[in-house]
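Protein Record: Sequence and Backbone Structure Tokens
======================================================

Structure line: whole-number tokens from a learned vocabulary of local backbone shapes, matched to residues.

Purpose: to set a sequence beside its fold so the mapping can be learned.

___
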Amino acid sequence: MRSLDQSDFIQETDFASTLRQRSCTRAELTHYLKDWLDVSRFKDASYNGLQVAGRDTISTVVTGVTANKALIDAAIEQRADAIIVHHGLFWKGDDPRIVGFHRERVRALLEANINLYAYHLPLDAHAELGNNACLGRRMGFTAFGSAGDSGLVMLGRLGCGVAVRSQVFAAYCARHFGRRVTLFASSSRLIRTVAWCTGAGGSLLRDAIDADADAFVTGEIAEHHIHLARESGVTLITAGHHATERDGVNALGGHLAQHFGLQHQFIDVDSPL
């Protein structure tokens, strides 16, 4: 099965308006993203929204998973006006000093006059463009609800409509992600309903158990989650923190390209985790 790209997530829009407008102001983009992603709904460790202010007019946007130096350098090379990421530079509780590698990232943004936006939980949970919604579409799940705080765990059924064993389901996940996945807990019960949460979703495994899901798919877990899954009879699969969170920010960039007429490029700085 082919990988998803921007065209899979483009929303219907007024194309005449799109052709007229090829840029937006920083203020317009900031307010639009705040409303579209419903940022105020979430209690988050991330400072969601504009993290570093750059030039006022935005016509070219680069998206990526994490605001690392490699992504920033690539965006500078592409002459981007803004970078939008899932994992930003500023987190509540972090050391506020701008030193070392942190200084180099901020320095590069300021010297290039590039805006940096970050959206963490709002981008996970968005019903259309969120990481969870995108994972469900990639896997062909039929979503029927959600669980947990802010609906961060999605619930669905296998698109094939047939119950499968855990090993078969793990192979199905690997094929759709195009990478190796890890089957940490294999249950004897057949899989009909699936719960999933991208990224470091292991902490939400209890929500999947309480929802009576047969399997839980996430990006990464902690050691004790394996035992919890085994003792609860839930199949537990990880597909990688980075790998499960590529689609949402790419989808968001595609949406902005259509809405504002911006140029958009998703740059994938790979991580094995």
About this structure: The chain has a mean pLDDT of 92. The longest helix spans residues 246-260.
